[in-house]
Amino acid sequence: MKKLFEKNRGKTVLFLGRVPNFTDIELQNFLEEQGMSYTNRYNPSDDIALIVLSSMLTPIEEELSYELYDMGIADISLSQFEEYFVQNIKPNSLIMSLKLSNNQDRLKRFLKNEAFSDEIYLKLFKLYDWNSQGLYDNDDNRDITISFVKRFYKPDGFRDPAMIYAPTTVMNIAQETDTPEVLDAILSMPNHEIKVSRKEQQRPKNLREIVALNEAISTDSIKRLMSFNNPQIDYFLSANSNITPTQQEILFQKNNKDIKLMLSHNQNLSDNIFEKLLDDSEDIIKTLLTFQKIDAKRLDNILSKSFDPKLLSFIGNNQTLKTDIIDKLLELQNIKLDFKLASNRAIKQEHISKLYDRYGNAIAINLCKNINIPKNMATDFYKLALLKNSLKSETSVLKTERLKPSIPNFEKTLLKKDKIIEALATNISTPSWILNELCQRDNRELNRFLASNPSVDIYYLQQFQLDSSLITILANNPTYAKKILNNLGI
Question: What Rg value do the Cα atoms of the chain yield, rounded?
């Protein structure tokens, strides 16, 4: 393209059709810089070297383009010209001139030019004046919003063209983008809101709240969000792992129980705030024990609080536990904690063996939920569940010889042999022959557990789709979803 323009200096470029993203003056000035002249009307006396064809030609213009082509005059599409235009302007000079002139009409035309890189587009986008109106409140705002969505709406899998025009799509971008600059740009937009039900009040309902949750957020955007001093924004920002220890401290000092609860979910929580939250309410302590990373120092702090066994047992649900921490927890011989650890995928097979040696079949249900259960143990528990009265006899042994009546509803728990079957039905590590046998039972209640298991053979998953009550469960099964997408050619 560059050679084509250099070769034809001193000649004229003819534009045919509608050119929405440039004015005549802009085209004239740009082409003069390239040593060429501009026209949008054909004159046989003009020394035309190049034709730029819009996708919107009148019949007369289309006929003329054929005639000029037959005369040997080269032509390019308007989109090709736009790319050349973008490559041959100085972005910083363009942005500075737009800032100084505040020419919104010119800015709008540039924002609709798809040839600009995302980097330049986002810089231009932040200069747009929304005139204190919403994203879709007038034609100009709607057009700019749509230009933004077209660039950054990148869903996994099928892209529905209608979603480009849906008001919720900007929310989706704010939630899913991993580009800090896109989030910065979203914060320059009007704070678009969506309606949520009373049950969903704890979910983000506007753009700022959604951006506050996105962990790709930049330092500048975090500062801007905190400057609003809005309790709801602070609430969501508290869970963001990108906020610094200093910012965590600022949020903690607001002494808001909801903000503290969200801080307890923060995966980058400072040790200082962790220690302070250990002295807070039981709900916050449960959340800390369940979701925070626990190292030796933190475990020492936890144990120094002398929590009651029931509260301490919540650490057994923590999926981030390391082997050394698990070893120390097992040394505590806390029954409630051990039963929670039994179904925790963080434990290794040696831990599973230790728990089985300690509790026998009493802990079968929990171990059958664990994806790390050895296949031979899963098989033994399955056979055990098939035997009538097997757990009943085991109960008496365990109550007298091992655990005594330390666990509430201990005997009732052991008698629920169907719970072993249900646990195996949902476990991805259950041997395939067991899953096949369970599927062949055609038990509607059991099928609800099997339908969620991606290890179940696709043959049975497709049989389950005949039951309308299982469709929602199947939709979340990766194996089933992959098969459906393959059938659709996606």
Answer: 32
